[in-house]
Amino acid sequence: MGAIDRVFHEHGIRKSTRFTYEESEECLIIRVMPGACHEAISRAFCYEIVDKISKLPGHSKNSVYSVGSTQFNVPSKRSKQGDEGFGPTDTRPYRDDWPPLMIEVGYSGSLHQLRHDAEWWLQYSDDQTGMVILIEFEEQPANLLRLECWEMLPEPWIRATRNSQPMRPGRKQSLSA
Question: Which of 8, 36, 80, 136 lies at a 20 to 30 A Cα distance from 103?
């Protein structure tokens, strides 16, 4: 994968791609991102998050760290890059910790894949990522924006015991505008 990454950098197209490596299948998935619209939506949403946090009492813009599109690996499974990731700066003891909040942005009809990505972040982060926000933008028919918030939710049909509550990734909230 290092050779592919180097070639993409040399040709100036690395920033517009996302890599996902399925180790069990020995398969590399290369997603070409839609470009300016995708980045504008992602950045604008991230700026809003940082701005809102900085306005909370006792916080500033330095209260949040960003991992951008850092690649995260799950041995024998898959590696993945999100669009953005955030966490509080005062509680991140190790550089390789996964961010508590991940953001995935899609464009025109990618909601199914975004939901799959949300499940992956929540299942494989070892409880480090607690929330995934999905953003899908469709220009047709009328500039539709969908937001979904995903978290680990209790399994509704499996009985909880005193010592454990079975959980699964699920959509907690959604909004279309």
Answer: 8
Class of domain 35-176: alpha beta
CA dihedral (133, 71, 22, 20) in degrees, to 10, reads: 70
Would you say how long the chain is, in residues?
Answer: 177
pLDDT tens digits, one per residue of 115-156:
999 999 999 988 889 999 998 887 776 777 888 999 988 877
How far is residue 111's CA from residue 136's CA, in Å, rounded to a whole number? 6
Helix (H) or strand (E) holding 76: none
Instruction: Give the full edge-to-edge strand order of the sheet including 144-154.
Output: 64-66, 84-88, 101-107, 131-138, 144-154, 167-176
C-alpha closest to that of 110 among 71, 83, 137, 128: 137
Q: Residue ranges of the chain with pLDDT lower than 50?
A: none
In 10 A of CB 86, how many CB atoms? 21
